[in-house]
């Protein structure tokens, strides 16, 4: 199993497109299944189109579904942080993408994004583990 | 890694049961992990019971959580299409199912479904990649 | 592929931390990808922090997003059971975790939990399948 870890800066965006880094990791590899895994309890990974507004639409949807107010038992850090802890149950931090001939088998508009509404920690780690076969 | 691609027609249903096709692909295979991967930015995959109304209940839930109105930045195609682009963040297009002795290890009531509320494109592609071990 | 099945008792909690059992299964194994798979149509798996209230916050969020009332076509068992059947579309019963040197590569606060709001059946089965590489 070939592995690496990405460092992702979320200080400027809550939805960060990491597709190029993920594609770079599998370039030249043989076929296999790639695990993309965010090492945090307040972040998720998703496959969406980017650059046309869906990043903002996703953040607005999550804020509507998991309101950033004082309703949560889990309270510490910034206001709304209890909501951050619910996010990974709906947007999983674990994702598997097939690799064929050293390329991610993504559809035309699919991009890999890290979803992180937590502003308290802007440095995020994402593992990549490719199991070949 | 053994691979194929399914073509799924969503013109009649927004939640399509693809279990039989997926099970047929792994029949006779040895043990391994099967990746089921929808190649679209407006579709997801889920494991639910089918035939008892949950398909419609799921569509109603998604329409409630991600309303099909004009709130989205991502606008093109039919009304509500911005909502379609948020769906795969909550219902992931990537799913892994273990295979033992050529059979999917599903629970009694679990079926594999493609979830696609987007009426603009009724032809959908789903990759199947089996990594044996 | 190395496999086992866990039996999880959900009679006391709707969100059950199964991390220790999962970690025990991969102890001593070589590297690989671990599939964690709940064999039920009304349960899901998630990676969240436990012990600080997020379990309850997640249950409250799910009850808000998928209200336990009579709106569902799928009706049988206890009141709200139609909602239980929608849960696995949002909280998938399929999860993949990388394993390195016989350890789950979880982040500091990540725990593996079974999410099951269905009170009709307190005995749940979770498969573990480790594909080494």
TrEMBL record, chains A, B, C:
Domain of life: Bacteria
InterPro entries hit by this protein: UPF0047_YjbQ-like, YjbQ-like_sf
Family that this chain belongs to: Belongs to the UPF0047 family.
Record-given protein name: YjbQ family protein
UniProt source species: Candidatus Amunia macphersoniae
